[in-house]
């Protein structure tokens, strides 16, 4: 009782008075990255640059490969690479690591955010301390970082999947989508773009259903089964999510539809290797995470050296990947996804 | 009140003093060997990291002293955060939301309290249940969405510090609460009653202590403080989410046990617990600064937790064996030295 009273009093004392409601102040998001000073494209990357990768979580194979790409790049420009991170991917768990990096005074922080806002304050403190901040894979609010390395544009991801579909079933047939959750922003955007392009360029391809496996293996498996039972003439399934693609492949590989119904989408080579080998799936796509990390490291070095300041139109060279241009809102697009087939899948391990 | 027992020998050096000692050693070693550890900015980061743990550890210490436990605290933080986010979206004033969140925390605590004291259920089982229930409700309220557009002066206050000292603003209200809880536990009849309940509930009842009512209000207070923790968490990370503070209950319980509070009740002090919170935080911070991986840090936290349960229990067993004719099992009726020896503020 006493404690509750003390609490209440403390709260009222410490909270600002006067009634703060939503919309009182102009939204401060969307002001874009801070870009100060002029870019000097000819600046040299200084030796000994400290570059730290902070993935969503450690021990995640995807980020293991991405950070490996970063390490490769850092070795090329004679910097010092390190990788730190939390053991679970929660919204706030990255903050204390960012604080530590601020304290250590590292030159470049390359991070993939578990939450677009939770690490903002910490990242801005790091930038005030002189660090260049690059986000990759998952962005923060643009006001909290210098540049964002986008693995692929939504357009690139969607058209690669449509291309893969057409290559296998031709220009007519029935297709269904097996998505993640019904409110997953990126999935919905990709599906919308794919439907638009199909309607415009391939009017004879009919989208008969979109189902949601919620990124759960079992549910995705059952939804696949349901699709095939409901739509007897189905020619193809596109699953733009790694969990869904693997689960659908597992169902197809054990059913009479194997080889009859085309399956494609976004997946990782290690999940899909067996299904490429047994002929269930002929091709699927994903960006190459090693290239993603590699580009993030070079972008960080370019920022630190002053080659770019994160403004639209700044250009820099990212080692073996060649030249890149900073787009609107400090976004740098890696390129179209990599398509994996039996020809090249053995070159990838993630 | 139970009469002060006659002491046959000096009490063994108390665990909470030992924790304070280890904390000092860690602070000295880290300051001299880890570059940047002792800077005011780093101390600020460290304090911010342990703020919510310290906050919740205050009432939880009292709960554990009575022989109960509350594992639902982190889920209360998450549910409060989710509710805070949706109330903010609905356009209520933030001042009102903060009060509502603390009240909500208190209500959630009352649910625990009612199940434990009204129905006589074991608090371990009850709060494992509400741990899942509250977290589930948090996802019902906010799903996997995040609400982030809290006003910058509030979120700035939550990560800001007092002038150039590096000491976070939030230390002040925390210190006020800490003083309140220390006084209650160590300087009032209520506090002595809590130790008595933990040592021997039946004796406490016979001594005229309102065991059930006191325990009920302890759960309410714990919930309310966890609600406040949810508010602070949300502002600090400028992000209201249903999964906020996931797993935090383990760190809080680890801090309470490492601080010398017996999991069986009846023993421990807030000084030991606050020292343990700082010890865990400093170790983590210093090891992070020398790039020890987070997996190793988790292993370390686990080891410290096991040590803090095993060592006092072994010591108690040895004491009991030495005592001629020591009949009663040590954990249900331990030598009640702690309450008396650390009783004064």
From TrEMBL, chain B:
Chain intervals with Polar residues compositional bias: 334-345
Domain of life: Bacteria
InterPro entries attached to this UniProt entry: ABC_transp_permease (IPR001851)
One Pfam family of this chain: BPD_transp_2
Region (Disordered): 320-345
TM spans (from-to): 15-37, 43-64, 96-116, 123-142, 170-195, 216-235, 247-264, 271-290, 296-316
Keyword Cell membrane: yes
Alphabetical UniProt keywords: Cell inner membrane, Cell membrane, Membrane, Transmembrane, Transmembrane helix, Transport
Compartments in which it is found: Cell membrane
GO molecular function, one term: transmembrane transporter activity
GO CC terms: plasma membrane
Chief place where the protein resides: membrane
Membrane topology: Multi-pass membrane protein
Protein name: Autoinducer 2 import system permease protein LsrD
The organism of origin for this protein: Actinoalloteichus hoggarensis
């Amino acid at each position: 009782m006493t404690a509750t009273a003390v609490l209440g009093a403390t709260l009222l004392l410490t909270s600002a008075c006067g009634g703060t409601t939503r919309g009182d102040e102009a939204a401060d998001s969307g002001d874009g990255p801070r870009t100060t000073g002029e870019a000097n494209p000819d600046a040299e990357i200084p030796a000994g640059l400290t570059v730290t990768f902070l993935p969503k979580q450690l021990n995640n194979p995807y980020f293991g490969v991405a950070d490996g790409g970063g390490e490769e790049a850092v070795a090329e420009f004679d910097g010092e690479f390190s990788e730190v991170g939390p053991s679970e991917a929660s919204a706030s768990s990255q903050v204390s690591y960012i604080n530590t990096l601020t304290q250590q005074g590292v030159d470049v922080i390359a991070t993939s955010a578990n939450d677009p806002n939770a690490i903002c304050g910490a990242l801005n403190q790091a930038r005030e301390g002189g660090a260049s901040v690059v986000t990759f894979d998952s962005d923060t609010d643009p006001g909290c970082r210098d540049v964002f390395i986008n693995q692929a544009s939504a357009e690139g991801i969607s058209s690669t999947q449509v291309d893969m579909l057409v290559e296998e079933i031709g220009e007519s047939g029935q297709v269904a989508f097996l998505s993640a959750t019904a409110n997953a922003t990126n999935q919905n955007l990709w599906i919308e773009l794919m439907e638009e392009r199909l309607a415009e360029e391939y009017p004879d391809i009919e989208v008969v259903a979109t189902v949601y496996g919620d990124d759960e293996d079992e549910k995705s498996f059952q939804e696949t089964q349901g699709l095939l039972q409901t739509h007897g003439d189905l020619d193809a399934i596109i699953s733009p999510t790694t969990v869904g693609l693997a689960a659908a492949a597992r169902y197809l590989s054990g059913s009479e539809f194997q080889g009859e119904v085309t399956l494609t989408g976004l997946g990782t080579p290690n999940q899909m290797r067996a299904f490429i080998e047994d002929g269930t799936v002929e091709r699927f796509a994903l960006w190459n995470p090693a290239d993603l990390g590699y580009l993030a490291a070079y972008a960080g070095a370019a920022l630190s050296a002053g080659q770019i300041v994160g403004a639209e139109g700044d250009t820099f060279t990212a080692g073996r990947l060649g030249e890149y241009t900073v787009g609107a809102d400090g976004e740098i697009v890696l390129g179209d996804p990599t398509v994996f087939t039996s020809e090249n899948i053995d070159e990838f391990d993630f | 009140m139970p009469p002060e027992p006659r002491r046959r020998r000096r009490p063994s050096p108390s665990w909470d003093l030992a924790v304070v000692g280890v904390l000092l050693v860690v602070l000295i070693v880290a300051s001299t060997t880890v570059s940047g550890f002792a800077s005011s900015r780093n101390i600020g980061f460290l304090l911010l990291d342990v703020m919510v743990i310290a906050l919740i550890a205050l009432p939880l210490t009292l709960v554990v002293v009575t022989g109960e436990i509350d594992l639902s605290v982190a889920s209360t933080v998450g549910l409060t955060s989710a509710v805070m986010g949706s109330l903010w979206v609905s356009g209520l004033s933030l001042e009102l939301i903060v009060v509502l969140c603390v009240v909500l925390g208190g209500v959630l605590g009352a649910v625990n309290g009612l199940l434990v004291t009204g129905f006589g259920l074991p608090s371990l089982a009850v709060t494992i249940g509400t741990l899942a229930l509250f977290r589930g409700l948090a996802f019902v309220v906010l799903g996997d969405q995040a609400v982030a557009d809290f006003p910058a002066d509030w979120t700035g206050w939550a990560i800001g510090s007092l002038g150039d000292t590096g000491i976070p603003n939030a230390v002040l209200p925390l210190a006020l609460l800490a003083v309140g809880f220390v006084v209650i536990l160590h300087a009032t009849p209520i506090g002595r009653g809590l130790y008595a309940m933990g040592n021997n509930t039946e004796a406490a009842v016979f001594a005229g202590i309102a065991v059930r009512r006191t325990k009920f209000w302890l759960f309410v207070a714990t919930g309310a403080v966890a609600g406040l923790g949810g508010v602070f968490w949300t502002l600090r990370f400028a992000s209201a989410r249903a999964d906020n503070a996931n797993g935090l209950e383990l760190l809080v319980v680890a801090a309470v046990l490492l601080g010398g509070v017996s999991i069986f009740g009846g023993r421990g002090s807030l000084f030991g617990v606050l020292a343990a919170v700082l010890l865990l935080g400093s170790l983590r911070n210093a090891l992070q600064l020398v790039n020890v991986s987070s997996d190793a840090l988790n292993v370390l936290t686990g080891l410290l937790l096991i040590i803090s349960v095993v060592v006092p229990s072994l010591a108690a067993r040895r004491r009991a064996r030495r005592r001629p004719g020591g009949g009663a099992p040590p954990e249900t009726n331990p030598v009640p030295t702690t309450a008396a020896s650390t009783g004064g503020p």
